[in-house]
Design goal:
It comes from marine sediment metagenome. The protein contains seven helices and ten strands. The protein is of the alpha/beta class. The chain is globular and about 45 Å long.
Length: about 220
């Protein structure tokens, strides 16, 4: 796009050759009249991730791997006032960026948000109820329980962003100092980041962090 991007989509990767193409195609095919850019922050993959990603996005090779470091490293190289962080196995629908941008334009007090998550790669499970046969995935209850978890976190005024999709205003991201560098393999980057945002909003006496139940993304259930 010729005009300066208003949205920067940032995807950290490390050996994601089996997932990255689908995710980037989903971002590339957005029906969005807002200028946006696609940035891949690669942590020195040893597979074909970078080769694939360069067909769809601007790729930066970071000096070391680690999701927090990779994301923080590329943010200064982006232009958008709205930062969209996606995992390499997360899929968005074709109107995702348009809808997200409108939400932030309408709600000036919104600091950051995540869309609801649905896990897409579970195995089908069939069961019979009376004469009817029903089929669900083995992630059905995981999807439901995760939805309840984030709903009640928000209800109790301790909202938690979802790591596979975090959308935040650039200025707010910079105010909290980006993602905290946690020890390797320690789960909880998104919770620590959410807590930093909650602290900032209370200190500033303004700002909201939300999970959007009316917008969803698909992501892998791998852990």
């Amino acid at each position: 796009m010729n005009s300066k991007p208003k949205i920067s989509v940032i995807i950290p990767t490390y050996n994601e050759e089996t997932n990255i193409k689908k995710s980037l195609i989903a971002v590339k095919k957005q029906r969005c009249n807002i200028p946006y850019e696609i940035i891949v922050a690669d942590g020195q993959s040893s597979d074909e991730t970078v080769t694939i990603a360069r067909k769809f996005a601007k790729v930066y090779i970071t000096p070391k791997k680690g999701k927090s470091f990779q994301v923080n490293y590329v943010v200064p190289k982006t232009s958008g006032d709205l930062l969209v962080f996606l995992d390499a196995d997360t899929l968005i629908d074709e109107f995702f960026l348009q809808k997200i941008y409108r939400i932030f334009e309408k709600h000036k007090n919104l600091f950051a948000c995540s869309a609801r998550v649905k896990y897409y790669d579970g195995k089908a499970i069939s069961f019979k109820l009376g004469s009817q046969v029903f089929s669900i995935t083995n992630y059905f209850f995981l999807n439901f329980s995760m939805h309840l978890y984030y709903f009640f976190k928000t209800l109790l005024r301790y909202p938690e962003l979802i790591g596979c999709n975090i959308i935040i205003r650039r200025g707010i991201f910079l105010k909290v100092g980006g993602f905290k560098q946690l020890p390797p393999n320690l789960i909880g980057m998104d919770k620590v980041f959410s807590d930093s945002l909650i602290y900032l909003s209370r200190k500033m006496k303004k700002g909201k962090i939300r999970t959007l139940n009316f917008i969803s993304v698909l992501t892998s259930g791998r852990f």
